[in-house]
Design goal:
By secondary structure, the chain is an alpha+beta fold. The chain has one domain: Glutaredoxin (3-Layer(aba) Sandwich). It has a four-stranded mixed β-sheet, with helices on both faces. Helix 1 packs parallel to helix 3. The model has no long low-confidence stretch (mean pLDDT 96).
Length: 85
């Protein structure tokens, strides 16, 4: 299983949806709360090529985008393959 990283804030409904999908699939992830750790927002923006909205999701070293992109991968049957080691 590839490493999953998600940058979030506690007041973001899209972050909650993304985390819920990972939980339903039994996927563990590393979460960085950019509200609690504001210096990590700059890191997130650098890694995501300037995107400043949360969530920003990474699978392995690949930036997949936010919640909409995550659910599109799931709908199209591509998420499980992307998560596989």
């Amino acid at each position: 299983m590839k490493k999953v990283e998600i940058y979030t804030t506690p007041i973001c409904g899209y972050c909650a949806r993304a985390k819920k999908l990972f939980a339903q699939k039994g996927i563990s992830y590393s979460e960085t709360n950019v509200m609690v750790r504001p210096a990590k927002r700059a890191e997130m923006m650098q890694r995501s090529l300037g995107r400043h909205m949360v969530p920003q999701i990474f699978i392995g070293n690949k930036h997949i985008g936010g919640c909409d992109e995550l659910f599109a991968l799931e709908r199209n049957g591509k998420l499980d393959a992307m998560l596989a080691a």
